[in-house]
Amino acid sequence: MGDMTATNARRVLLAAPRGYCAGVDRAVIAVEKALEQYGAPIYVRHEIVHNKYVVQTLEKKGAIFVETTDEVPEGSIVMFSAHGVAPVVHEEAAERKLATIDATCPLVTKVHKEAVRYAKDDFDILLIGHEGHEEVIGTTGEAPEHITLVDGPQDVDKVEVRDPSRVVWLSQTTLSVDETMETVDRLKTKFPLLVSPPSDDICYATQNRQIAVKQMGAEADLVIVVGSQNSSNSKRLVEVALGAGARDAHLVDYAKEIDEAWLEGVSTVGVTSGASVPEVLVEEVLEWLSQRGFEDVEIVKAAEESITFSLPKELRRDLRAEASSLVED
Ligand code: 10G
Ligand code: SF4
């Protein structure tokens, strides 16, 4: 009977929202629809989203993932990943006579446009983001002469600008909100006239997933974040959980990667997933936990999400043409 108390104390806090954001949903469906519409192979420049399972599943269906445009045979179809590409990549594709489908998330495109606009007005742009990340490479490519990367608060000291009265900060969409605000505060101390972006660059999905994991963090002994190691937003969820007071937090691609030892002395497990993670992977984690006595699942709801994006325009055009030719037949 003593055991019952311990068993009853075991519970799971399940974050909501978690998993797919609108940009990922659209990008993954775009690859699937392109495969149906044009047939395999469809080349995709960079992982369509940073998730191992998604990439492997699409590979099985006939997608070929490449890192550079010159790996795509001339005349083929190439899709650009949700993280966005620099304008030079569009040019390279045109030179190779590739048909392109751009699956860049509209919220990333929004940041690209902000960069173009501020560069045109001759601002120095301080882009807060992680060095080497695909999205940062794409955004920087819009105005390389005007953009300086600021990779976290510790980078602020070394930032230099031409004219401190014409400086704006922009950011990657998947950063930690709190860390970014710390970076911005330090930048503002250094450049009091620093202009802020017209609207949040850290997207709604990143923000909501962080709010939810924060809410569960204080109560959780362990937080399991489902996501891949190269997924910026997923990694941030681990950091935010720890920052909110979770005793322990780990990022796993699959339930089988969970270490039994993590459960020692644990009664409350928080579960969430990054914006590139299909729900089936979370279900497998919940199943794994329930087999170990964590059957009681409580939802921690931070926000309601209803946003969706229409498919990339090149694909919509061809799908429409197909539909009308079917009607004509
Ligand atoms: O979190 P990052 O940017 O690494 O990407 P992801 O593929 O794991 O999640 C979806 C986010 C994007 C496509 C970047 S806007
Ligand atoms: Fe778009 Fe945000 Fe998802 Fe990135 S994380 S694809 S910006 S909705």
TrEMBL record:
> According to its UniProt record, which cofactors does this protein need?
[4Fe-4S] cluster
Task: Please tell me where [4Fe-4S] cluster binds in this chain.
Answer: C21, C105, C203
Name the catalytic site residues.
E135 (proton donor)
Annotated residues that bind dimethylallyl diphosphate are located at: H50, H83, H133, S231, S232, N233, S276
Q: What is its EC number?
A: 1.17.7.4
Which GO BP terms sit in this record?
dimethylallyl diphosphate biosynthetic process; isopentenyl diphosphate biosynthetic process, methylerythritol 4-phosphate pathway; terpenoid biosynthetic process
What pathway annotation does it carry?
Isoprenoid biosynthesis; dimethylallyl diphosphate biosynthesis; dimethylallyl diphosphate from (2E)-4-hydroxy-3-methylbutenyl diphosphate: step 1/1; Isoprenoid biosynthesis; isopentenyl diphosphate biosynthesis via DXP pathway; isopentenyl diphosphate from 1-deoxy-D-xylulose 5-phosphate: step 6/6
* Binding site residues for isopentenyl diphosphate: H50, H83, H133, S231, S232, N233, S276
Task: Write down the Gene3D superfamilies for this protein, in alphabetical order.
Answer: 3.40.50.11270, 4-hydroxy-3-methylbut-2-enyl diphosphate reductase, catalytic domain (3.40.1010.20)
UniProtKB keywords? 4Fe-4S, Iron, Iron-sulfur, Isoprene biosynthesis, Metal-binding, Oxidoreductase
Q: Which InterPro entries match?
A: LytB/IspH (IPR003451)
Q: Which residues bind (2E)-4-hydroxy-3-methylbut-2-enyl diphosphate?
A: H50, H83, H133, T173, S231, S232, N233, S276
> Which reaction equation describes what this protein catalyses?
dimethylallyl diphosphate + 2 oxidized [2Fe-2S]-[ferredoxin] + H2O = (2E)-4-hydroxy-3-methylbut-2-enyl diphosphate + 2 reduced [2Fe-2S]-[ferredoxin] + 2 H(+); isopentenyl diphosphate + 2 oxidized [2Fe-2S]-[ferredoxin] + H2O = (2E)-4-hydroxy-3-methylbut-2-enyl diphosphate + 2 reduced [2Fe-2S]-[ferredoxin] + 2 H(+)
- Judged by the first EC level, this protein's enzyme class is oxidoreductase
How and how many cofactors are bound, per the record note? Binds 1 [4Fe-4S] cluster per subunit.
The family note in this entry says: Belongs to the IspH family.
What is the purpose of this protein?
Catalyzes the conversion of 1-hydroxy-2-methyl-2-(E)-butenyl 4-diphosphate (HMBPP) into a mixture of isopentenyl diphosphate (IPP) and dimethylallyl diphosphate (DMAPP). Acts in the terminal step of the DOXP/MEP pathway for isoprenoid precursor biosynthesis.
What name goes with this protein?
A: 4-hydroxy-3-methylbut-2-enyl diphosphate reductase
